[in-house]
Amino acid sequence: MPSASTTRLIDRLEKAGYVRRVRGERDRRMVTVELVEGGLDDYRAACESSRRHLDEIAPALRARTGATTAGHVRARRHRLPISPQRTTRGRA
Asked: At what angle do helices 41-65 and 67-79 cross, to 10 degrees?
């Protein structure tokens, strides 16, 4: 992802109250992005909602397009991450 896109994404997450930027103590150019307390709650709820939706549409897809498409949906459903990884960037 381009640096400018990453900065905009982190700006939006910070404004929404999900993350905060922490500057490095030794190197002020280093910025670590940390989740705020409770920052995963909405994320987990959205993942669970997505899982339920994929579970609901899989039978209809299987009936319309065969097992292959339903298998892809099932695989994607199980690949939804449990929690995002911590991100570190070198620039503010």
From this structure: 170
